[in-house]
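User: Some background: our group keeps a shared notebook of sequences we're curious about, and every so often someone picks one and asks for a predicted structure to add to the entry. Today it's my turn. The entry only has the sequence so far, pasted here. Could you supply the structure so I can complete it?
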Amino acid sequence: MNERDKKIIEHGFWALMLAWFSYMFFYQNLLLYRWHRGLPLPSRLPFMIAGILVGLAYFLYRWDRITEEAPASQKS
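Assistant: Of course. Here's the predicted structure to add to the notebook entry:
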């Protein structure tokens, strides 16, 4: 396993953590500011999708940076 693979695994883990925390952040903010006791809970699906999109955007950003660095490090 080379350095590039290790970075991909590391940033994949951070993308999952970021997706989870952003989902919780979006959903909890809705519950705190818009939801009142006695009402049925809103659907979590849009917030899960938003969390997944945030995590995916982070991973794709890091993936692009890792693939840019790979040719430069192989030339050395």
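Suggested note for the entry: The CA atoms of residues 26 and 47 lie 6 Å apart. The chain is about 80% helix and 0% strand.
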